[in-house]
Design a protein that fits this description.
Length: 126
């Protein structure tokens, strides 16, 4: 608190490409501090000066992301089954039922899993 008054927090939210000012109030709920946002208005330079918000916050930050390499891998039916059985469902040999997974034996699935792992390229180290 400053001089008996609570400190006011202001934030700028970008909604559909336009900046808006919200006031955040600290509230204690069940012993935990939470924030309640209240809408003030569109973030114009005049309003930001009046509220003491730096004008740099009005400039939309552009994040330059690295272009992601697209990697295409051709998979066999056995490798797809191995991915679902071992990668997603985390099945073990004890829980393996060939009738449920296309009649493949456990050895075939393990072999397909190893070939699938070999096809995936290692990440590049910077």
């Amino acid at each position: 608190m400053i001089g008996g008054r609570r400190k006011r927090y202001y934030e700028i939210k970008w909604i559909k490409g336009r900046p808006y000012v919200y006031r955040r109030a600290r509230v204690r709920v069940d012993g935990k501090i939470r924030f309640i946002s209240r809408y003030i208005g569109p973030a114009t330079p005049e309003l930001c000066k009046q509220l003491g918000i730096p004008l740099e916050k009005l400039e939309r930050r552009r994040v330059v992301r690295e272009q992601v390499r697209e990697i295409r891998i051709e998979l066999t039916q056995a490798e797809m089954i191995a991915f679902w059985a071992l990668g997603v469902h985390k099945l073990t040999r004890k829980r393996w039922k060939p009738s449920k997974w296309g009649g493949l034996s456990w050895k075939d699935v393990k072999k397909a899993w190893e070939s699938l792992k070999a096809k995936i390229p290692k990440p590049l180290k910077a």
